[in-house]
Amino acid sequence: MPTNLSNLRPPKGATSNKKRVGRGMGSGMGKTSTRGHKGQRSRSGSRMMRGFEGGQMPLHRRLPKRGFTNIFRVEYQVVNLDRLAELGEKNITPELLIKAGVVHKNDLIKILGDGELKTALTVQAHKFSKSAEDKITKAGGKVEVIGAATVAGAKDEPQTGKSKAPSKLKKKVT
Predict the structure, then answer these.
(1) Quick one: CA torsion of 124, 129, 134, 137, rounded to 10 degrees?
(2) What percent of the chain has a predicted confidence (pLDDT) above 90?
(3) Percent of the chain with pLDDT over 70
(4) 89 to 15, 40, 50, 137: CA distances (angstroms)
């Protein structure tokens, strides 16, 4: 008999009936309703915190803390050259990559040099790896860096150690 939607069945043992507790001694889950005798977990309304191990130091507190979160981290969506070559376009912009579903909207884009380029491409992105830059220019293309990739904490000019606050005007003494 051919299998179709009308005669599909789950394999034996894959499904079981819901556990119905407190339905008499004959059910095997009567009297204490699978909770056992006494103790915190047998009481109604009992709820312990996640990861509670009966008073033993829980696993999430036994393990050491590691590392930190860099609040200035800038994440890029990476796109390889072979993916750009598949698009079949000469001028590649972030809008084109979003439309093709390669990256998401508002993502910063970094082009990596995995793959080969046969044609000259003009590529606009926020960042390029050295190998990607070399391969694009070697194929006769152009690399255009979009300026939106400035790091939040970075400053354009070096600090001189002096405050940028305006100095108070001094009155001339005559």
Answers:
(1) 0
(2) 76
(3) 84
(4) 53, 67, 53, 16
